Amino acid sequence: MTEVFISRQPLVNRQRRIIATRLTLHLGNPGNMHDAVSTLHALDGVWPLGAKPVFISCGRTNCDASLLNWSTPENATLELPAAVLLSPSGADLIAALQTWQPAVCLHFDPQAAAALSSGVQFRFVGFDVRRFTLAQLRLLSARTRSHGIGVAFNVDTADDFQACLDAGMTAAAGWFFTVPTGVPARTLNAGQANIVRVLNLVRSNADIREIEDALKLDVAISYKLLRYINSAGFGLSCEIQSFRHAVSMLGYDKLNRWLSLLLATASKDPMAPALMYTAMLRARLMELLASGLVDRSEHDSLFITGAFSLLDALLGVGMEQVLEAMRLPEPICDALLAKGGRYQPFLDLALASEGDDAKVIAEQAGMLGLTAAQFNRAQMQALSFADAMEF
Question: Which intervals hold domain HDOD (predicted)?
Answer without folding.
Answer: 188-391
